[in-house]
Prior knowledge:
Blueprint: H1 2-22, H2 36-70, H3 86-115, E1 122-129, E2 132-137, E3 142-145, E4 149-152, E5 157-163, E6 168-172, E7 177-181, E8 187-191, E9 197-203, E10 215-221, H4 223-235, H5 239-244
Parallel strand pairs: 1-5, 4-10
Antiparallel strand pairs: 1-2, 2-3, 5-8, 6-7, 6-9, 9-10
Helix pairs in contact: 2-3
Copper (II) ion binds at residues 168, 203, 205-207, 211, 214.
Amino acid sequence: MKKIRIFLLSGFVFFGFAAIGWADEPITNWLTSPEGPLARAVRSNFYFSMAAFLPFLILSEVLLVYAIFRFKAKPGGQAATFHENLRLEVLWTVIPALTLAVTAIPTFKTMRAMEVPPKSDLVVAVIGHQFFWEYRYPKYGVQFAEEAMVVPAGKVVTLNLSSVDVVHSWWVPAFGVKQDANPGRITHAWFQADNPGRYKGQCAELCGKLHAKMYIDVNVVTPEEFEQWLMKKKGAAPPAQAAGSQ
Ligand SMILES: [Cu+2]
């Protein structure tokens, strides 16, 4: 009976992890390939906090396992009845408090970096719809939807996010960006992707039936390619006008 249970459990664990390995990867991995200064700051913040908090997890788990085997009830055994250990209680209050205070410093620094972008090179309005994204480049009079956002590499892109219906969230992990897009309110985010490539993300706020299909694609191209793309986009008649001229 016990063997069967262990067998089943290891089966679950194996297939659980295998699913992660086999899944086709729709979203760019922020941990192995963070893109740009903000994403790297988020990652180092994660590593730092992880290093600070992991000892607490390990210590408590080790103590738990130790206590299970060391202090399990024996026939005729007598339970211990000690109470209070001032030194221990002070220690396990002060050490975690200090750890929290120490990790708060880089965390607030990273959050501030998220809130306050460097000088913007390109402003893009991001508008959430059920269930797709619309992008507007106000400086260039370009707007489109259900297509990849195109931005130049190495430039600071600032985003003004909003929504026409419900709350959505623009999330591209590789850029270290996850920001809500709310109806009737503009929120802000920024990123700077250093390398050309295609970066993927997804709406991260449950917004309705097709939320799971609300993908995000960002094409990071060279500044020259970006200029060419802009020319092409400006040359093409916007869909609204094309429909009106018929
Ligand atoms: Cu959604």
